[in-house]
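As a warm-up, study this chain.
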Amino acid sequence: MIKKILVVDDSIVMSKAIKIILEKAGFDVFTEPDGAKVLDTVKKNKIDSVILDLMMPGISGKDVLKMLKSDPETKMVPVLLLTARIDVLRWDADFKIAESSMQKPFDNHELVSEIKRLVGN
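Now compare it with the structure written out below.
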């Protein structure tokens, strides 16, 4: 069964790049430009893992993470935090509820490997 990944990033370029990388690795990839529709997208499409940018306008990645982990239908969906500011992850305990994190820029092979690990593929 093909695993479904949701990429949430306000950068269209970043979202497209991640989508291409993961589709080449055999994943079905959905994208959202902000946090507004993440819960609905995860539930509607039975998403297997979320790649979440932390620094977004409007609803922040931190708020999206809290929403995902507090909803009974989405709390078990593994989240990979993706950020240019990896230092933030060290001092903010709220980010510890995510299953993984990775710094931008990332290595394509490491991203694919980490997503495979998270979805058990």
